[in-house]
Amino acid sequence: MKIPQLLLCFLLFICSSNYAIAKKKSHKHHPLLFLPVFKDEITQQYVAQIYQRTPLVPVNLTVDLGGRFLWMDCENDYISSSYKNVPCGSRPCKLSGSQGCYGSSCPVPPRPGCNNYTCSHIPYNPIKRSSTDGELAQDVVALWSITTTTNRNNVSKMILSSTSGVMFNCPGDFLLEKLANGVKGMAGLGIGYTGLPSQLARAFHLPRKFAICLSGNTKSNGVILFGERRSYYASNEVLTSYTPLLKNPVSTAGAYFPGEPSVEYFIGVEKILVNGKIVPIDNKLLAINKTNGVGGTKISTVVPYGTMESSIYKAFKYEFVKAIAKVPIAKPVTPFELCFNLSNSDTLKGLVIPQVSLVLLGEHNNSTTWDLPMNNFMASPTINDSSDLLCLGFLDGGENAETSIVLGGMQIEENLLEFDLVKKRMGFKSVYMSSDLVSCSNKFR
To answer: Which of 149, 169, 321, 440 is 20 to 30 A from 430 via CA?
Structure first.
């Protein structure tokens, strides 16, 4: 995946007027590290490209916002002179939270993914809903960055900044099933020690914060940015809405070690509003059960559409249908469960889509409201004979949903989300409501 011209133009504009492209080995400070992200048209997955190994090669990875670590297939064509397995009992192994260790069953000579007496972990594919054990390893990783010289020319350079020792997991290639074509693994951005944001912060001496701006356009790129916010936001762009990141003491991964907490991003939804009216729901479902980790609200990039526990969904659906009563309901199109027929021209006259809002726990025990633009909850199916349909982009998550509300890719597209792992908060702003950011694809492609 090449760095598109408009992405280059924007990133270079915020630093200086001139640029040069170069590679550079490890660098002690970078004001900006970034990964271009594109949306795969077939799977609806968000795919980022990093560079890894020695010599560096580009690797496409599906983005998992709540993933514990970087994992990728090491069975096929993994060639690197800088690959190192993480020994059992070593400091990196202990800090990773591993409770597993490979014995002496690996072949001689060893290969990437199978070394004797090596720390092991449990990589998980949340799309396939499958996990396995995998060797924990370290290798060189590189991302794009922008630096500005201090000489009289004030030249901005686009460089590929690399660092050694980034931990990742090496499962077998069967774990790649259901991932986008050409993808070699997953990029886990979770809260923990082995999550990519924390590893990059340690390696490049960055603040432990990152931001995402995902494009809903499969023809244009969004971006993931690591480092200080003022380094990459447009000059007038300020985030003023924040909500705390909540801890779930029980892992929500498909497989995990005993006692392992969740590394996913949970936020506190206090109320759901439709046209300002409160949706009547059981508030107990909005809280995280500290014993079993059930309940609450999380944000996910591996779920294309939001889900709600059945009773929440039914109440929300009822209020939404009531608010849009003049529009006839149509036979739903998979995967949607509620669709509306817009084929009658009279229906379109004066049509106003109800406003959906999330009242969130704010800072200092106050509340803050996240008003979702229509594009974040209404979808137009792309299959044949569905051009006159408009469908609700939330689905029924079931009566026994592990997480009561999941905000999926559709809900967070075209939103600037900043995750501050030190202050434990998430800043948010819709680019549709921004004076500077027209869309993620326009500004970051």
So the answer is: 321
